[in-house]
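Hi support team,

I've been running sequence recovery on a batch of backbones for a student project. Most finish fine, but this one hangs at about 90% for roughly twenty minutes before it completes. I'm not sure whether the input is malformed or the queue is just slow. I've pasted the structure tokens below so you can try to reproduce it. Let me know if you need the job ID as well.

Thanks,
M.K.
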């Protein structure tokens, strides 16, 4: 498949995103911000929207997750590299990708029973929806905290609580780097 002037590789796109983010962080720094928490992109390849569109119905669409992972690796690297350009600043990388992937790999151990389908009935493309958002007047699951995904893309409040708890208190560098948000708040 040849590249045209309108197409860029995933690597180029990721590079453009991190460059733009770096400029935005520097703008915030110049306005007085010194403490930053940078959240990873979630494993969107595991979302109900992605798996519903997959012809093989794979549990996670790996091509999407590889692209997200590439960005997240660059984001984690940015935490160290940008700090030198912003004296007195502290940046923390919160790896929500890993936290959600861990839940999806073993939902029961984390108190979840459904890691595949959305809690709400999602409006499909055939119904004029995007495959992401809940269908107006559609059904909603009775136990939201048992689901990993609320709609076709977004995690439930229960998952966000796990991410927030880990971001604040985890001492595991694969989840928060170089420190957790509690430590960041004490600087």
């Amino acid at each position: 498949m040849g590249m045209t002037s309108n197409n860029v590789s995933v690597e180029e796109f990721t590079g453009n995103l991190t460059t733009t983010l770096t400029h935005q962080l520097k703008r915030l720094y110049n306005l007085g911000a010194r403490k930053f928490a940078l959240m990873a992109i979630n494993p969107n390849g595991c979302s109900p929207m992605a798996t519903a569109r997959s012809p093989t119905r794979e549990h996670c669409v790996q091509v999407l997750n590889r692209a997200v992972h590439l960005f997240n690796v660059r984001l984690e690297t940015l935490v160290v590299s940008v700090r030198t350009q912003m004296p007195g600043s502290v940046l923390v990388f919160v790896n929500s990708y890993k936290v959600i992937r861990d839940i999806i790999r073993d939902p029961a151990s984390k108190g979840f029973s459904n890691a595949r389908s959305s809690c709400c009935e999602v409006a499909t493309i055939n119904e004029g929806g995007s495959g992401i958002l809940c269908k107006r007047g559609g059904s909603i699951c009775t136990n939201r905290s048992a689901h990993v995904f609320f709609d076709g893309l977004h995690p439930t409040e229960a998952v966000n609580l796990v991410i927030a708890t880990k971001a604040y208190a985890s001492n595991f560098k694969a989840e928060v780097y170089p420190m957790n948000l509690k430590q960041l708040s004490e600087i």
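--
Follow-up from support: It reproduced on our side and the slowdown came from queue contention, not your input. Strands lie at 35-39, 90-94, 114-118, 147-149, 176-177. No action needed from you.
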